[in-house]
Amino acid sequence: MKLSKSIEKNLEIFQQKIFHDDDVIRYRRFTLGNTQIKCGIIFIDSMIDKDYLGENVISPLTRCKSESIHLREIYPSIENIIAVESLRISKGLEQMIEGILYGDALLLIDGTDLGMILSVKGWEYRSISEPTSESVVRGSREGFTESIIINISLLRRKIQDSRLKFKMQELGRRTKTKIAICYIEDLVSPQILQEVFERINKIDIDGILESGYIEELIKDSPLSPFKTVGHTERPDILAGKILEGRVGILCDGTPFVLTVPFIFMEGFQSNEDYYRNWALASLDRMLRYVGFFITTSTPAIYLSLITYHQEMIPTPLLLSISAAREGIPFPTIFELIVLGLVFEILREGGVRLPSPIGQALSIVGAIVLGDAAVTANFVSAPMIIVIALTGISSFVIPQFLGVVILIRLAFVLFASVLGLYGFVFAVIGLFIHLMSIRSFGIPYMTELSSYKLEDVKDTVIRAPWWWMQRRPKLITKKNRPKRKRIEGK
Amino acid sequence: MKHLILLLIAALLLAGCWNYREIDNLAIALGLAVDKGEGDSYIVTVEIINLEGAGPESEFKPTTVQAQSDTIFGAIRRLITVTGKKLYWAHAKVVIISEEIAREGILPILDFVQRDAEIRSDVWLLVSKEETAAEILASTPLVESSISQQLSQILQHHAPEPKSIPEELWNFMQKLTAPGIAPVIATVGLVEQGEEKLTRIKGVAFFRRDKMVGWLDGKESLALSYLLNESISGLIVLRYEESGLTAQITYEVVGNKTEFQPFIKDDQITMGIVTNLQVILAEVANQKVDFSQPSVRSKLESDLAEHLEELMKRTIIKLQQYNSDAVGLGSVLRRRDPEAWKLVADDWPAVFGSLQTDIRVKPVIRASALVSKPIEMRD
Predict the structure, then answer these.
(1) Is the predicted ipTM greater than 0.85, yes or no?
(2) Which of A332, A377, A418 is closest, CB to CB, to B55?
(3) How confident is the model at residue A478 (pLDDT cuts 50, 70, 90)?
(4) Residue range of the domain that includes A158
């Protein structure tokens, strides 16, 4: 389909063929100054800034004098009349439709088969606010919004380096979601970058509503429950990761930005680690590793101790556990799985509910299910302690919140048939799995399996900034020094 | 991949104990007492934890169950018919043996204790001074919830008052099988306090091979524990007399190192024993005793030396009468003079019976606790 030279016919094309039955498309007709040339503007209501369009486009065009209009080169001549910072003259119908759908206004003038796409976007944004999923005590309070343009500006403001690049793309055949792949040119590993582009170009899907779609489509080891693509809502985290040579993928319509490669260790890092005293931050990191161990292993260890290895429990403890279990009708494994399930239901319920109801839920959970179940002799008190400890510890590592449930369950099942032997067997299995997966070519357990001092500076501990002089080895193969002093060497 | 999975499944079957047992289906045994029954049989008394009530309100009350059989294990299995639960031995604290059995030889009993997979080798051994061993388990626990835990508690904290020598099973077995040393086992008796009967661990029973041959009282046990270098603490109370001034002095031992040196002259072995004691003056009942004076201190030291030398001599002579080398002089000789040991090894108990010893105690008063001078009273 092509446009003709008659404005009426052209408007008809849009009104009857392309946007038929669509009531939000607006068609504004007017004449160009005192020249009697008919014009039309097509735009979508509520996606444009109406004041801006009226003041800077329609008003100057209707008031202009005929001597300033050259009929032969009508578009170039009105470019000086319209006060819009970005406009382009287009011939292709596809381009024009796309422009209208993305909040631009299309100006058509009688006598030409060209259209002028005017950038007058002006829809409502959610303002920049503090991200709720990753709250910090110390650190930047701004979080990404749903608008990719704002998100890009937030990142640009953090890294004012011309070598920070944004590659814009569109994904989703129908949603035409804008995405931006960002990286610092001289820090990023070319292989990783190439891999990212390759995987993103292979994506063929009708709609991308959230970056989670992309995450799942470009992820390594798709069957593994461990995430190999990171995501964050905070510009400072994204900036930090990009400065380490990682690649960020911003996606329009969601505040969650993807970062690749993502390695196991990142699950235990928090941006606040880098803002606080290094010793305290290191302590926190170690706590997270301990929390990971507790949340995955306590139920399994408890189970194997009290059903297989009673000799390993100190006598007084054994006696009190034994007293607490007296009269409990169910085997320990049943008790454990049911209570664990109840906890997960409470947690899941709490996440989705508005906070006032969430509080009521936790009271019901704590009092009714915890206390009453013990008093009624359905479950034993030590089991409540184990489940509570497990649940609380899992909140230390929000990045792995979902995975630990699966690991815990696997550990418990192994421990229930083989005791500690089964538990250790499952742990070995977990390590084999962790060691075998990769994220964009980077081994998942990188830096945790290294013996070099240089590599452990930002792992279980967070070394002081003056001591961390190089970027992570595998991710940034080139340009590793973080500071100028050793850059010359 | 298929092979790998098969291998992993096979690995699962290779090891691991398929001994799943719920904690509430176990009767936790805490103590074992063995007495002589009619004929060749044994009466086995076991202290188990009995749970009363259910859930949060349940309480554990120790209780004893008894069975008779020709073997220990037989009797223990027979107990299931009474308890309804399998006895669980990993938390057993004490094995109490009656004097009658100890005198006959305790190895037949220890065979089960040593052989059974559940009973730990750090279980305490005790010989009952009462008529039966079962009586001990029937007494009243004072601080702990069961009598076995009470006994274990006493044995664990015996160090400040070493009037006995606690032996764990592994240690006893080691001494039993080692050349040149005889084992001892702490003895337990009952003391009455009001209506209750409480246990007291004092003194040891000494053995020749696995047969008990005699008792040592509390003081002799103290001497033995210094000779064995088992103890570096303890109290010794002596009467001080000097130019009409008398006082009860309490010495607290804070260090002990006993050294041995065998001398051989004309085929006659003499064992030189030197005990280096470090003591502090813990209590002086008469303030006129001026222990800050060097002369008084040396008198105090020599008093103590004399007392201990006499006590050790008496202890060793008592052991010699029964040819039971509980001090381990044979093993000293074996280490220090292997050639000489080879000549007497086969006949060691008899040689020990007539062994000459030369005992010297060298006490040093290290301090007088927080006071440096006697308290002077004024009007």
Answers:
(1) no
(2) A377
(3) low
(4) 148-262
* Domain total in chain A: 3
Q: Please compute the mean of the pLDDT values over residues B118-145 and round it to a whole number.
A: 91
Say if B237 falls within a structural domain. yes
d(CA B95, CA B35): 11
Residue from the list B16, B23, B120 with its beta carbon closest to the beta carbon of A321:
B23
- Residue A460's pLDDT is 84
The answer to whether residue B197 is domain-embedded is no
User: Do A324 and B56 make contact, defined as CB atoms within 8 angstroms?
Assistant: yes
User: Do A306 and A431 sit in the same domain of this protein?
Assistant: yes
Chain A partners of B23 at a C-beta cutoff of 8 Å?
306-307, 310, 318, 321-322, 325, 332
Confirm whether B68 is domain-assigned.
no
| Shared-domain flag, residues A292 and A334 | yes
pLDDT digits (tens, 9 = 90+) for B254-309: 999 999 999 988 888 899 999 999 999 988 888 888 888 888 889 999 999 999 99
Question: pLDDT at position A487, please?
Answer: 46
Strand partners for A257: A232
Report whether B96 contacts B133 (CB < 8 A): yes
Is residue A252 located within the same domain as residue A170?
yes
- Rounded to the nearest integer, the mean pLDDT of chain A is 87
- Indicate the number of domains in chain B: 1
B62: closest CA of chain A, how far (Å)? 11
In terms of domains, do A168 and A93 share one? no
Q: Residue A394: which of A386, B325, B135 has the closest Cα?
A: A386
User: What is the predicted pLDDT for the residue at A65?
Assistant: 80
| C-alpha span between A37 and A111 (Å, rounded) | 8
Model pLDDT, residue B194: 86
User: Which of A79, A102, A118 is where one domain is finished?
Assistant: A118
Tell me the pLDDT band of A31, cut-offs 50, 70 and 90: confident
Q: Which range of residues forms the domain containing residue B302?
A: 219-370
Q: What is the spatial distance between Cα B329 and Cα B313, in angstroms, rounded to a whole number?
A: 14
The torsion of the CA quartet A17, A21, A23, A27, rounded to 10 degrees, works out to: 20
Q: Residues A298, A384: one domain?
A: yes
Are residue A422 and residue A286 in the same domain, yes or no? yes
CB-nearest to A326 from B11, B24, B91 is: B24
Distance CA A476, CA A464 (A): 20
Residue B348 sits in a domain of what CATH number?
A: 3.30.300.210
Nearest CA in chain B to A324: B55
Q: How many whole angstroms separate alpha carbon A440 and alpha carbon A438?
A: 6
For the ranges A114-123, A273-282, B225-234, B269-278, the lowest mean pLDDT is seen at A114-123
B18 has a pLDDT exceeding 70 = no
Residues A258 and A286 in one domain: no
Judging contacts by C-beta atoms under 8 Å, the chain B residues touching residue A425 are 11-12
Residue B51's closest CA among B24, B15, B79, B21?
B24
Q: B 116-155 residues with CB below 8 A of A?
A: 118, 120, 145, 149
pLDDT of residue A481: 67
**Between chains, do A325 and B19 touch, taking CB under 8 Å as contact?**
no
Number of Cα atoms under 13 Å in the Cβ half of residue B304: 27
In this complex, which of B17, B22, B24 lies closest to A419 when CB atoms are compared?
Answer: B17
**Which range has the worst mean pLDDT, A10-24, A325-339, A459-473?**
A459-473
Could you report the per-residue pLDDT of A172-224, keeping only the tens digit for each? 999 999 999 999 988 888 899 999 999 999 999 999 999 999 999 999 888 89
Mean pLDDT of chain B: 89
Distance from CA of B7 to the nearest CA of A (A): 13
Note the pLDDT of residue B55.
63
Across the interface, whether the CB atoms of A318 and B28 are under 8 A apart is answered yes
The answer to whether residue B16 neighbours chain A at the CB level (below 8 Å) is yes
Q: Would the CA dihedral through A173, A174, A175, A178 be positive or negative?
A: positive
In this structure, the answer to whether residues A422 and A310 fall within a common structural domain is yes
Q: Is residue B287 part of a domain?
A: yes
Cα–Cα distance between A56 and A52 in angstroms, integer? 6
